Amino acid sequence: MRQVRHRVPEFAGLLTAVSFAIVLVVIAGAVPPALFPRAPPAVMNAIPHAIAGVSALAIGTILAGLRAIRAGNVERHRNLMVASFALFGLFLTVDFYRLAVVGPTAFAGPAVVETYVYLPLLVGHAVLALSTFPAVYYAFLLGLANPVAALPATDHARAGRVAATLWLLTFGTGLVIYVMLHLLW
C-alpha cells in the first residue's frame, strides 16, 4: 500500500482506463455471448431486479457511510465505504454479464417518453457513471492507502464528497431507468 499511497492519481487513472475499456467493449457488443455460460432464463430475468436491489443497498451504505464520518466514526465509515465499493463491483460484474449475454433492454414505453425523458436520462446516467469511476477510485485509494491520522492532510474528504455525490446520482438515475424499463412498461 505504500507504493499506492505515493501514486494514488496514477493508480486511479489506471483503474479508470481499465474500467472505461471494459465498458466500451461490453457496450459495443464486442464480447461474444458464447464466451460466458448462459444462466437459466429465470436467473437472467431476475438479474435486473437483483441489480436494482444492489443499487438500493449501495445507496444505503453510501448514505450511512456519510453519516458515520459526519459523526466522527471513522472505522464505521471505512467499513461502509468498502461495502459500497464491493456492491459497486458486484453491480458492474452482474450488469456487464447480462449486457454481454443478452444485450441492452429495449425501451417499451411510448415513443414520446423515450425521446424526451428516457433517452436524455440514459445519456445523463451514462455521463455520471463514467465520471464516477475516477472519482470513486481516487477517493477509495486515498482512504485505503493512507493511515487514518494522515487522511486530513490529503484530498480524501473533498474527493470523497465528489465521489459520493456522483455515486448517489448514478445509482439513483440507474434506479429510475430500472423502473422505466422493468416496472412501468
From TrEMBL:
It comes from Haloarcula saliterrae. It comes from the Archaea. This is DUF420 domain-containing protein. The lineage of its organism: Archaea, Methanobacteriati, Methanobacteriota, Stenosarchaea group, Halobacteria. Keywords: Membrane, Transmembrane, Transmembrane helix. Pfam families: DUF420. The chain crosses the membrane at residues 12-35, 47-68, 80-97, 117-141, 162-184. The keyword Repressor does not apply.
